[in-house]
């Protein structure tokens, strides 16, 4: 897209990773970020906007190839988004002619790389396993939260509440997810995962994301679930997770939690000046 030929609009990309879909705005050439809570809400409307699980804005960075800001469809900020990080990293790697990039998010410095099979891996950093870092409202046993269903708390740059159940496919994700998201134990609300062991180091997982709702996949949620499963003694440190939108692989290594999966650049679009003016 040629910015000079459409000066009154705003270009964007639509991408997804295992069905977890994103609007991506590339602001590396701009002095200031363009996304606001109002714009995020308008864009997130699947009937009147574009629709997404998360919105990612690419920003220039010193000491890294780029920086990423994340937004939920309700206009709130997201601290981490693993699948969007993988998708945007693939775009930047192609743009820069690289096979690996370094990026900065609210989580800190992260690393991403493209594998020979075309999938992209990102190091989401070490899990946050202190109640203050998740964060929780008070000190509790993170492996056995004082909530019905005996869930696990894990932070991955955003908070997670992981339930291990007999059959993840039978869970009322909408009802249970919405209820747990706003539990007072999580002062910043929480993402909610439901997982069942279906094979050796293999989990079936479904997810409710705070500020968004049910999504087909969640990268940080897959990381949190894999960490929780290992800490509970259910799996090793390398886990495959079957989500509604596809399979993600998580490998908890000494240098952090690596998450690998497919990426897709679906289309490029242009937000009209009229649409942008309505969100100003």
Keywords:
280 residues, 17-stranded mixed beta sheet, alpha+beta, 2 domains, Diaminopimelate Epimerase, Chain A, domain 1, 5 helices, 38% strand, globular, single chain, disordered N terminus
Tell how many strands the DSSP assignment holds. 17
Number of helices: 5
Oligomer kind: single chain
Rounded to an integer, what's the Rg over CA atoms? Answer: 18 Å
What is CATH's topology name of the largest domain?
Diaminopimelate Epimerase, Chain A, domain 1
Residue share in helix:
10-25%
Q: Give the biggest beta sheet.
A: 17 strands, mixed
CATH architecture type of the largest domain: Roll
Order of helices and strands: EEHEEEHEEEEEHEEEHEEEEH
- Total number of domains: 2
Uncertain spans, ≥5 residues at pLDDT below 50? 1-7
CATH homolog superfamily of the largest domain: Diaminopimelate Epimerase, Chain A, domain 1
Strand-residue proportion? 35-45%
Mean pLDDT value: 95
End-to-end Cα distance: 23 Å
Report the top-level CATH class of the largest domain: Alpha Beta
SS-derived structural category: alpha+beta
Which shape, going by the Cα principal axes? globular
What does the model show?
The chain has 280 residues and is of the alpha+beta class. It folds into 2 domains: 3-124 and 263-279, Diaminopimelate Epimerase, Chain A, domain 1, CATH 3.10.310.10; 152-254, Diaminopimelate Epimerase, Chain A, domain 1 (Roll). The chain has 5 helices and 17 strands. The protein has helices at 37-44, 82-96, 173-181, 219-231, 273-279; strands at residues 10-17, 20-26, 54-59, 66-72, 77-78, 100-105, 108-114, 120-123, 152-155, 159-164, 191-199, 202-209, 213-215, 238-243, 246-253, 256-261, 264-271. It has a 17-stranded mixed β-sheet that branches.
């Amino acid at each position: 897209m040629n910015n000079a030929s459409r000066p009154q609009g705003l270009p964007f990309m639509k991408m997804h990773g295992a069905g977890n879909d994103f609007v991506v705005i590339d602001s590396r050439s701009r002095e200031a970020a363009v996304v606001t809570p109002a714009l995020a809400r308008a864009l997130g409307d699947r009937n009147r906007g574009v629709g997404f699980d998360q919105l990612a804005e690419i920003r220039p960075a010193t000491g890294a190839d780029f920086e990423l800001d994340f937004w939920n469809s309700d206009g709130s900020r997201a601290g981490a988004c693993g699948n969007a990080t993988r998708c945007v990293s693939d775009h930047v790697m192609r743009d820069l002619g690289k096979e690996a990039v370094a990026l900065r998010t609210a989580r800190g410095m992260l690393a991403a790389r493209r594998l020979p099979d075309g999938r992209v891996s990102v190091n989401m950093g070490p899990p946050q396993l202190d109640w203050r870092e998740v964060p929780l409202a008070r000190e509790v046993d993170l492996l056995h939260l004082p909530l019905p269903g005996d869930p696990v708390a894990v932070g991955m740059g955003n908070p997670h509440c992981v339930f291990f159940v007999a059959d993840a496919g039978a869970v009322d994700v909408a009802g249970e997810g919405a209820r747990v998201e706003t539990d007072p134990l999580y002062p910043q609300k929480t993402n909610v995962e439901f997982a069942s062991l279906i094979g050796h180091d293999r989990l079936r997982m479904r997810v409710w994301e705070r500020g968004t709702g049910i999504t087909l996949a969640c990268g940080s949620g897959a990381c949190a679930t894999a960490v929780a499963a290992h800490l509970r003694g259910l799996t090793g440190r390398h886990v495959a997770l079957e989500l509604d939108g596809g399979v993600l692989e998580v490998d908890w290594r000494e240098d952090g939690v690596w998450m690998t999966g497919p990426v897709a650049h679906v289309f490029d679009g242009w937000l009209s000046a009229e649409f942008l003016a309505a969100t100003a």
